[in-house]
Amino acid sequence: MTVPGRRSSIFTRLLRHGFTDPSGAERLLDVPELAAVRGDSVLLDALGATADPDLALRGLVRLAEAQPEEERQTLTSTLLSAKPFRDRLLGVLGASEALGDHLARHPRDWKALVTYEAADLNPGVAEFERCLADAGDPVALRVSYRRCLLAIAARDVCGTADVAQTAAELADLATATLRAALALARAAAPEDAALCRLAVIAMGKCGGHELNYVSDVDVIFVGEPVEGVPGAEEGKAVQAATRLASHLMRICSETTVEGTIWPVDANLRPEGRNGPLVRTLSSHLAYYQRWAKTWEFQALLKARPVAGDLQLGADYIDAVAPLVWQAAERENFVPDVQKMRRRVVDNIPVAHVERELKLGPGGLRDVEFAVQLLQLVHGRSDATLHSGSTLDALKALAAGGYVGRADAAQLDEAYRFLRAMEHRIQLYRLRRTHLVPEDDADLRRLGRSLGLRTDPVAELNKEWKRHAAVVRRLHEKIFYRPLLDAVAQLTPGETRLSPKAAGQRLEALGYADPVAALRHLEALASGVTRKAAIQRTLLPVLLGWFADSADPDAGLLGFRKVSDALGKTPWYLRLLRDEGAAAENLARVLSAGRLAPDLLLRAPEAVAILGDPEGLKPRGRDHLEQEVLAAVGRADGAEQGVAAARGVRRRELFRTAAADLIGSYGTEDSPREPDPALVDRVGQAVTDLNAATIAGALRAAVRAEWGDRLPTRFAVIGMGRFGGHELGYGSDADVLFVHEPREGVPEHEAARAANRVVTEIRRLLQVPTADPPLLIDADLRPEGKSGPLARTLKSYEAYYRRWSLVWESQALLRAEPMAGDLELGERFIELVDPLRYPVEGLGEDAVREIRRLKARMETERMPRGADPTLHAKLGRGGLSDVEWTVQLLQMRHGWAEPGLRTTRTREALAAARAAGLIPGDEARILDEAWVLATRVRNAVMLVRGRPGDTFPSDGRELAAVGRYLGYGPGRIGEMVDDYRRITRRARAVVEELFYGG
């Protein structure tokens, strides 16, 4: 009897043995059915060694209560006298509630755990077939299957079998079960069985001999007529085989009073669920030779005949094997495989990503995909890699030098741990899941089942995250590290890739010139210098990022050039090694096109921008202008001063392009940025740096001839995209030049000075140097190319009052002071405001004239041969369509709506929507089209290094544009279709608002 107010000694012992509900456990130990074992310390010790002592005790009580009286004594005496049996039974009961339920329903099945012989420790298909032999119907088959599963689970939880052996045993049990189910189907339809040969090919984890406790069993069925049997022609034989196969699937999959075994999934067959369930061997071959996708050959890596006509199954394997090992020669092979992996990750619900053990980043699928990819690349010439088992294939890859031994060992350890977690999670309730539980009790049981006893939950999370991090770090790196070993040759006697194998791998990973790539790798990684050692560490990761781009060759070549230029600079390699983002940012920039690498290679020290968290943020105009003017002030002459200003511009163009590319691609630590934000940032940044550069050129031109004071006040007015803060990388700077003679200066002298300054500014900004020129376009001035480059404010006033045309008023919508005398610039704006925002809006004649000009431009200015549906500037729904529509709204309503008085297209469009001048949906359509067309123009410049208004025709350049726009490998058609769809919708809005309103 327990003394009131004090804990009993058994309560304390239960706590010490790991029970979480010692009071409940005390009550269970007091049940009469356990009277024979209640006081035995051996039982408590054994319960305390299980994953969940409370669950094990509850299961034991249920089992004892279910025993007939004569059997109960046998059970309890065996439990106390036979340690192997005790560990097995309690181990299963403490790890699996579902198997505890089975034992309660079938109380005699505990005897399946008593046998402890050599054959019992390593059962194969034959042993499992004997265990299932007496099952004469689907219900009995389920009971027999669970009895076999009891023994497998016992070996697993007691450590008699490791995770790979357990997975193999589960696959062998599945094989025996498929054979038993096929036998039942044949017995039910002997006439069908007589007509056909049917082979069952295991796929997936069953085929790879690495099955889970609860998993779909993937299969493919092959059928042929039986030779010499009357009426067994091909059509009837396939129909008979289909009936047998369907019955087999139902036997295994249907839910009965004993539950289900597992679903049999035949969706990996040709054409998936849309294709026939059974095909002949020749039909399979015809499909694979003509129609099969890359992933289907990847799936066939694990194909294995398991049931039915095994000779037919072997013929199937012999026939498809050559096709499997040629898959790596298919166009877009590696991008296809990587795209499939990304699609798997993308389809995981957001709430599950962090708990997804199989499909999430750093999960089981990462290891499996990496191993399978390397098998397909190198298995063409090395038959030792022809294995369906992930761990066996990983071992063979390491032995052949295709994967570094240390990397393989780490992946092997991580994969075994993750598979063990998966097994124990599924074993608990025998449910198909790959999600790590959230409940502490479930995590505690899971941790204890894996031998983590001190603090199971904390230890489990720590080990899981550690192994997942290893997989994340290595699953792509293992492709590249052996390439370096092949060229560096630092460890004598180490098995390494041959030049041929290294070339094959590079080619499969998307390198167009693997010979040149190997040459670059050798130059970067060979030798014993500190530089070579650091680059050997960096390159496996960099090569992965390069391969993720549209032009890996350019990325690797650019990295070699930058390293050659900066390799002896201590901060450079330290930056890449220690600043996590710097290396990835550099890889993205170097492999995304020509413009950013060209800018970087002209002054490689700008790579420091990529390692500074603040380095990618654009500098404001005030900051830039201050730096440019200071540089001009220090220079000895105008050309030196403007060269310094252009150097600042080049650096800032690189900063802007790098930030744009990195934001467009996203990184491991930050997602891809939205398109509108990127467009606005680029437009503002390029506008600011061009304005600062022009200010510097103006200061240099004035100082060279007039000192600090020009005889006339002088202002530069931005026009077009420059005035609209919407410049792209390849845009000219559209400007007007306005001046006003200083007091006492004759007008002709002031005009001569102003025009000489303009000429000198344009010359200085285009002097051939290593830096990109800034082209100044003044063609929007009064009288166009026939008029003077610079006019006085009074001259502008006289011209606009007397001669101005409606298109000139429209052009002035973008006018904004950019450099020089800002007070003069503001007076110019006051002068033109009544022209661009006429009181009471535009008259009907002016509206008709604008529409006529737009229609004429559409027919006359489109380049010959250009596709009007894909021209970003002048094409259907492109920049011109949206901008003219917005500008018409500004000229008609700007006098009454202050929000419309802006030089920026997107701001004006938002203001028109806010004022009710355009419905919200239509405004969004126009905005989306304008942003997309702007992004296309920016992409073309970044990729080709020269401006363009339409998609490139070169396949690699087109793919690079796609990556910049967020379209992965193989999605070029989707990108073009999306562009046409978005701009077609925009054109419909333009037709209504511009031409019809």
Written overview of the protein:
The chain is mainly alpha-helical and 997 residues long. The chain is built from 45 helices and ten strands. Strands 1, 2, 3, 4 and 5 form a five-stranded mixed beta sheet that branches. Strand 7 (733-741), helix 36 and strand 8 form a beta-alpha-beta unit. Helix 9 (125-132) crosses helix 11 (163-188) and helix 34 (675-706) crosses helix 43 (920-944). The protein is elongated, with a radius of gyration of 38 Å. Mean pLDDT is 90; it is low at 1-6.
Main pleated sheet: 5 strands, mixed
How many helix segments?
45
What sort of overall outline do the alpha carbons produce when their principal axes are compared? elongated
Unreliable residue runs:
1-6
Quickly give the structural class: mainly alpha
Share of residues in strands? 5-15%
Estimated helix fraction: 55-70%
Query: How many extended strands?
Result: 10
Radius of gyration: 38 Å
Through-space gap between termini: 96 Å
Average pLDDT metric: 90
